Description:
This protein is mainly alpha-helical. It has a domain of 58 residues. Helix content is 53%, strand content 0%. The longest helix is centred in the last third of the chain and has 23 residues. It is elongated and about 70 Å long. The two termini are 35 Å apart.
Amino acid sequence: xxxxxxxxxxxxxxxxxxxxxxxxxxxxxxxxxxxxxxxxxxxxxxxxxxxxxxxxxxxxxxxxxxxxxxxxxxxxxxxxxxxxxxxxxxxxxxxx
Length: 96
């Protein structure tokens, strides 16, 4: 499992892409929480930030619907994988 997570992180970082099955409102909420814990100042004003969507139940439910759809897409994606047959009795390459 650690290897799979490492490979996933490597691909996301090297290709500079977002995780395909992420929940946008939850990610924004977690990112804002980390920013505040790291010492970033709170913004004052009348305009809600990107993490505000997680406080609205309708938007949170929509986010969960996206997550369920993503989970189904992921299950279909993984179901198409084929395991490699084990190779037995491999011969040594020539010259060794």
